[in-house]
Write a structure and sequence with these properties.
Helix content is 20%, strand content 39%. It is α+β, with helices and mostly antiparallel strands. It folds into 2 domains: 74 residues, Pleckstrin-homology domain (PH domain)/Phosphotyrosine-binding domain (PTB) (PH-domain like); 120 residues, 3-Layer(aba) Sandwich (Rossmann fold), CATH 3.40.50. Strand 2 and strand 3 form a beta hairpin. The radius of gyration is 20 Å and the shape is elongated. The mean pLDDT is 93.
Length: 202
């Protein structure tokens, strides 16, 4: 994935060994000391050789990341939009099942996506199903039976909730005969898991 790396960290006068993790909206360090740096708290960031220098109001954190330093700098300073991470291109048809935020729908319209609600649009390469609870997955088998070719189904669900868990989502998708291939931070509160037909069925 390229978003985690064993490294050393120079912070608060200490040299620490552990693992750095690049998340959707924060940079984490887990080791002798744990550190969390939300992107919005970063005042300045730059890469120098193998080092990633991160300045916050708490001080300077220097991550020794090797060849990943420059790539992580780019990901943090110029993050991809949600639609870029999901793969949605301008002018494509997008089929939505369930309730999605006005911000997401507005982003789709800005990108020129053709939005269809409650059914799969003809030749639509993208299907999104919002699952706020387990009962929202009842229609999944019928949707999965209509998927053809390389069409992708994104199941969007809340983070850290008991109403529907990652295990529920993955199990429901696999039971339809689809395979999960990618996970994306959909928003600060939701995650999206991508399912597609196995290559043998395309």
């Amino acid at each position: 994935m390229g978003n985690e790396s064993s490294c050393t960290l120079r912070y608060a006068g200490k040299l620490l060994s552990g693992k750095a993790l690049l998340e959707t909206s924060e940079l984490l360090f887990r080791g002798e000391t744990r550190l969390k740096i939300p992107f919005h708290s970063i005042r300045k960031i730059h890469a120098t050789g193998s080092e990633l220098h991160v300045h916050t109001k708490e001080g300077l954190a220097i991550f020794e990341l090797g060849r990943k330093a420059a790539a992580w700098h780019q990901k943090i300073s110029r993050p991809k939009s949600v639609l870029e991470k999901l793969g949605v291109q301008g002018g494509q048809s997008v089929s939505l099942y369930g309730e999605f935020s006005s911000e997401f729908r507005a982003d789709l319209k800005k990108r020129g996506a053709k939005i269809v609600h409650g059914k799969i649009a003809k030749d639509s390469p993208w299907i999104f199903l919002a699952a706020e609870e387990r009962s929202d997955l009842r229609g999944l088998p019928a949707i999965a039976r209509q998927i053809q070719g390389a069409t992708a189904l994104w199941l969007v669900y809340p983070k850290g909730q008991k109403s529907v868990t990652e295990s529920d989502i993955r199990s429901a998708g696999l039971e339809t005969g689809l395979v999960d291939v990618k996970v994306v931070g959909f928003s600060p509160t939701h995650t999206a898991l991508k399912f597609v037909l196995p290559k043998s069925r395309r």
